[in-house]
Amino acid sequence: MIGIILGTRPEIIKMSPVIRECERKGLDYFILHTGQHYSYEMDRNFFEELELPEPHFNLDVGSASHADQTCRIMTGIEKILIDEQPDTVLVQGDTNTVLAGALAASKLNIRVGHVEAGLRSFDRTMPEEINRVVTDHISDYLFAPTETARQYLLNEGIEERKICLTGNTIVDAILQNQKISQTRSKVLDDIGVKPKEFFLATSHRQENVDSYEKLRNIINAFENIHNELSFPVIFPMHPRTQKMIQQFKMSLEGTIVMPPVGFLDFLQLESKARLVLTDSGGVQEESCILGVPCVTLRENTERPETIRVGANMLAGTDRDKILSSSREMISRTATWSNPYGDGRAGKTIITLCNGLPPRNANH
Ligand code: UD1
Ligand code: UDP
């Protein structure tokens, strides 16, 4: 039996091809939702749009400090894993849900597969970097999306036999949903913008939005981009950012702010944007795959492939650097190729998990 653990928006989206493959093959599996994300537009909306089965378990842990949240998730997961006794647990990415899931499972001697293993920003001030490093080192199978990620794992002494180059499941998710998005999404008409005549922005990184100065710079940069480059900036806002904007009593001028949108609308916004500005990991990958230039509102990235192919540029949170990077990126033609695989990562991962011997034979 396979236990799929997820808890946040990007995990639901990037695990969806893995879940679909389990369904297609009629495998014995369950979905364990930690409830790290719980607002309709961060959670349920994706199950509905992507037509995913209901999670078999939901821990409803909600929001808390890092230690508290991680601890609550571990305690809840441990009980379920003891009852269900899966052979393999799959986690995806770098959230507290991933760290807690991998820790709880590995201590029960349950095999852990880490989807999207080997990403490194080499910045240990990011909570996600801690989660990635720990998870990779306690996982039994590491599904690396790119050769760079595979190499990082080898450099850290992880045994080659544990690592498998699969591509990133986000390519599968895009391919499975792009046509549906084109026919169903009316988001451009609803907002009143034309293709290639707007910029798309997202920002939610703890180190950016929890800092008054950095968030102020980012918002000022969006305002300036609107004034100087004459296209509107569309900003579907993560709840963390909404909370901090209210807390800091900030207002946004010249920016179209809206609640987070569903994946189908977001794919339309991304693929039709003139430029994407983001501090999201997934959005850097998606804009690269969709052939839309990206400016990353961070000093580093664990997605160096996007920069290498010419699709992305690091601007940090300095207002002038964001502006100059935006000018440079809108002048680039999207001739790069997608470094994240052919859209069969979900199938590869499930074929590998399914072919493994029963747990007791392995440990
Ligand atoms: C988490 C992940 C981050 C990932 C992001 C995806 C960690 C450490 N961080 O960050 O790596 O990029 O998810 O979006 O795991 N909130 C709501 N409704 C929700 C969820 C959150 O209102 O459904 C608000 C709460 O005020 C909460 C805040 O957002 O305190 C932050 O949520 P949390 O899950 O702690 O971290 P994210 O910033 O979402
Ligand atoms: N996304 C979405 N609606 C939005 C913003 C983002 O569906 O309003 C999707 C986006 O397509 C990507 C994922 O959410 O697949 C990225 O999640 P997020 O930026 O929250 O997390 P990260 O990738 O940084 O961990």
Automatic annotation (TrEMBL):
This is UDP-N-acetylglucosamine 2-epimerase. CDD domains: GTB_UDP-GlcNAc_2-Epimerase. PANTHER family: UDP-N-ACETYLGLUCOSAMINE 2-EPIMERASE. Residues 22-351 form the UDP-N-acetylglucosamine 2-epimerase domain. The lineage of its organism: Archaea, Methanobacteriati, Methanobacteriota, Stenosarchaea group, Methanomicrobia.
